[in-house]
């Protein structure tokens, strides 16, 4: 099947308006006869469910958590971008569009990104009307902060809990519709398959996680807002339950999976402390505004620090290597995430990692504390040369800005970041890849939609900070409700979809067989045993830096691990009860397939772009020597994979990316 | 407005209002009692006024009695309801880590105060009612007609050490009850603002000072009769 | 370190349940409490026993899923954190640790340490929202300025993660801190004024119907709340409720 992205014709700025003017609508009376299933209740799924219900559709929403409010969107810290230009600093729809395409290293679809930038301003209006308590200035108007290396201040925020506040906003919009009976909410339900009838997505099979009951749910369309697949690495900043299962089942039913290798590795996370580690914690990107990143210059200092003989703050300035400032004088500590992450890895690989595992660098606030302290002393007319006073005043300023993050760090690491530099290391954070969708956000399966992090479309090969929240809400509140109506207008005469058809029966049977296999298999290793092994392979060979040999090895190792998994996995308990191990087994089974496709995609893409860094594609000389090298001639396409059984048999379909409004350039941060 | 007493917050508010009223009463009661230490004559005058003035006797006294009964009955009702809100109790519960003993044991301090009140009524209030309304002696004079009887009776009551001891214990419980209750009443009626800190300090002084004063009066009369 | 764990085990909602003793060895002080339970579960699975079921998801203190009553305190002995942020360095070698589910009639046990907190959701359905359509066709976000002090207070109230520690720790199993936080968030913002009367009446009514106890102002909830939601929010709800009762 050839990929048709269905991008509307016309100039980029008019596409969305023209599109909306010409789509088919469903009249309100008919909407009452149409059912829509929404899987996932994060920013994308939650906002979509609320809006569709409000329009009049009958919505069934599903989440595996005990409440829609717990979806992992809640953990987003920094903020949400919107081209409001409230600061009057030259922001515009075009500029947000341009920054997003450039930040994505020219691997996203122009039309989608422009639409995203266009609706971004509405998101802020909408959220404020819903009672989302964004940060404000003393004059009572909304405050903005600057983020992720762009040249304007367009990030709206609510302290370090923007994701939480936006999700609670979407959750409250859902609550209103649940109260009205327009959304039927299924908590603690996991989607285990998509059901296709006559080629169209017409329902899903779910498992009630409390009772183990397998249920059939039908609808005229199915929307997946099921998030990213970062947990394929086992350790990531994702929630423990975040998984690829819904997306993977859709893939198996015919939805193409696009660019699985595009993964964002966030540079500022708390390092791994040992083998017991179950997840990683992010320290907001905003810290890089004031923190300076360094490792010691000399090996003997590294060893002394690791052995605890030397306190990092006692190391002389000239013995420190502020490697980001050294390599990227123009952007310094504020280079984009992918660049900062690779630089940290480069230093640690060279042996300069500062903790026992050798995988940590310092993020130091001492000079910020000094600078702020002096400023405060000056403002208050106090002695600027009193070191103790300056330190105290400086610490107060830093505490006001980052207090909650510092506290979080202290609880986890048991060190006081006001007095000793933080230790950080990159960790898997976000996946730009996902289910392929067209301009309508529909997958290659008619009637199956995919929104938010679960789809691939807007961030290209690297996502800018504060853009994930924007995309999730844009898809759910403002894009999908239009595009899905166009599709559903054909369904006004269809009537209720029966769940008694043979398609539902077969899908349910398959699901049950797999579950039964797990609980009856006489294995010897727990699910986590396999998940951790998969994570190690992924991190070491398909992680921040990739090469042909490593990727080839990864593909065969993952395949072997998958075979071992199906022989030796051990799942205690039964199917008819709350059984977390059983739920995990199904998820890890899918990760074991996705992981291989991921490596295959990374092997196929013989260029470095955004989060995907190939050691064999770097600048060989000149000022940019050693930096990532994109290959626009051969790889300016979306790699959409079609399922054909084994991941190794997956078939590649290319959606050529056209850049009409933006010139392709090398990203330089020197 | 209807059914406000059926709602959790309405009940809470009613508890607080009755408590504030009772606290005001205690203050007034104390003010008169302390006169007995300063000047027996003044005490007699005040007592006679309170005992015979129609507004106090026929208006405030019934309100007070209703207030007391309401506060106790509602207190017990709420306690029972609250206990029902947790059907399986914790194997280990470290309440001391997050709240004061007083706040967690209002039912016990309150219960003991009730016992004390019953005795107090038997001691003072019932004889008063008997003298005034059953025997019809509204004069307030001693049997021999030589001045008011109130101070004499008061002194007489505090001769037995067991009663003094009981009063002392009763007031200790009142103090414990007030240490939480005073502030709590303000929180319940929705007053939590910039004055809260100051109020907390004042409430401590009240909750310790007033009961201590009552104890002082009891001991004073025990040792000075 | 080596520890003795006393854990509540209960097969399902209908089972009676009991405390069971377990031993775990070689626990690193750098582990989080839930990672320690992961170790126990791995051990149980390898011994063909059933692992202990507990709720958890984000493991960074924001989703509100984790809900353990540890040594007699909601989210354990540390302050300002959820169970997932509690680290084993808070305990000593040889300690005995009690681990129980959050207990309240309105939070029935689902299995072992997992409870059903859908009562919280139902309270929100009753009025935890502003009735504005999600069309995006609202007024400009800056059309109504909001006093920064009020906006900050509304935000503080809105940081509630709905974990239920307030209910679990309250001797009366009262949900007033949770409900008070939501009522306060909207009461402090101009957008919330329009429906203020109905909101507070409906939410309190639902709260009462769910079987939560009554607040007696012990203040335990504020101390144990991982997000430090202030008691001030309960006072504000009380005022709002009385105002609404007099009006409606």
UniProtKB/TrEMBL annotation, chain A:
<dbReference type="InterPro" id="IPR036188">
    <property type="entry name" value="FAD/NAD-bd_sf"/>
</dbReference>
<dbReference type="GO" id="GO:0009055">
    <property type="term" value="F:electron transfer activity"/>
</dbReference>
<keyword id="KW-0813">Transport</keyword>
<feature type="active site" description="Proton acceptor">
    <location>
        <position position="337"/>
    </location>
</feature>
<keyword id="KW-0249">Electron transport</keyword>
<comment type="similarity">
    <text>Belongs to the FAD-dependent oxidoreductase 2 family. FRD/SDH subfamily.</text>
</comment>
<keyword id="KW-0274">FAD</keyword>
<dbReference type="Pfam" id="PF02910">
    <property type="entry name" value="Succ_DH_flav_C"/>
</dbReference>
<dbReference type="GO" id="GO:0008177">
    <property type="term" value="F:succinate dehydrogenase (quinone) activity"/>
</dbReference>
<keyword id="KW-0285">Flavoprotein</keyword>
<dbReference type="InterPro" id="IPR011280">
    <property type="entry name" value="Succ_DH/Fum_Rdt_flav_su"/>
</dbReference>
<dbReference type="GO" id="GO:0050660">
    <property type="term" value="F:flavin adenine dinucleotide binding"/>
</dbReference>
<feature type="domain" description="Fumarate reductase/succinate dehydrogenase flavoprotein-like C-terminal">
    <location>
        <begin position="531"/>
        <end position="669"/>
    </location>
</feature>
<keyword id="KW-0560">Oxidoreductase</keyword>
<dbReference type="GO" id="GO:0005886">
    <property type="term" value="C:plasma membrane"/>
</dbReference>
From TrEMBL, chain B:
<dbReference type="GO" id="GO:0016020">
    <property type="term" value="C:membrane"/>
</dbReference>
<feature type="transmembrane region" description="Helical">
    <location>
        <begin position="203"/>
        <end position="223"/>
    </location>
</feature>
<feature type="transmembrane region" description="Helical">
    <location>
        <begin position="58"/>
        <end position="78"/>
    </location>
</feature>
<dbReference type="InterPro" id="IPR034804">
    <property type="entry name" value="SQR/QFR_C/D"/>
</dbReference>
<keyword id="KW-1133">Transmembrane helix</keyword>
<feature type="transmembrane region" description="Helical">
    <location>
        <begin position="12"/>
        <end position="38"/>
    </location>
</feature>
<keyword id="KW-0472">Membrane</keyword>
<keyword id="KW-0812">Transmembrane</keyword>
<feature type="transmembrane region" description="Helical">
    <location>
        <begin position="161"/>
        <end position="182"/>
    </location>
</feature>
<dbReference type="InterPro" id="IPR011138">
    <property type="entry name" value="Cytochrome_b-558"/>
</dbReference>
<protein>
    <submittedName>
        <fullName>Succinate dehydrogenase / fumarate reductase cytochrome b subunit</fullName>
    </submittedName>
</protein>
<feature type="transmembrane region" description="Helical">
    <location>
        <begin position="106"/>
        <end position="126"/>
    </location>
</feature>
TrEMBL record, chain C:
<dbReference type="InterPro" id="IPR012675">
    <property type="entry name" value="Beta-grasp_dom_sf"/>
</dbReference>
<dbReference type="GO" id="GO:0022904">
    <property type="term" value="P:respiratory electron transport chain"/>
</dbReference>
<dbReference type="InterPro" id="IPR017896">
    <property type="entry name" value="4Fe4S_Fe-S-bd"/>
</dbReference>
<dbReference type="Pfam" id="PF13085">
    <property type="entry name" value="Fer2_3"/>
</dbReference>
<dbReference type="InterPro" id="IPR009051">
    <property type="entry name" value="Helical_ferredxn"/>
</dbReference>
<dbReference type="Pfam" id="PF13183">
    <property type="entry name" value="Fer4_8"/>
</dbReference>
<dbReference type="GO" id="GO:0051537">
    <property type="term" value="F:2 iron, 2 sulfur cluster binding"/>
</dbReference>
<protein>
    <submittedName>
        <fullName>Succinate dehydrogenase / fumarate reductase iron-sulfur subunit</fullName>
    </submittedName>
</protein>
<dbReference type="InterPro" id="IPR050573">
    <property type="entry name" value="SDH/FRD_Iron-Sulfur"/>
</dbReference>
<comment type="similarity">
    <text>Belongs to the succinate dehydrogenase/fumarate reductase iron-sulfur protein family.</text>
</comment>
<dbReference type="InterPro" id="IPR025192">
    <property type="entry name" value="Succ_DH/fum_Rdtase_N"/>
</dbReference>
<dbReference type="GO" id="GO:0009060">
    <property type="term" value="P:aerobic respiration"/>
</dbReference>
<dbReference type="InterPro" id="IPR006058">
    <property type="entry name" value="2Fe2S_fd_BS"/>
</dbReference>
<dbReference type="GO" id="GO:0009055">
    <property type="term" value="F:electron transfer activity"/>
</dbReference>
<dbReference type="InterPro" id="IPR036010">
    <property type="entry name" value="2Fe-2S_ferredoxin-like_sf"/>
</dbReference>
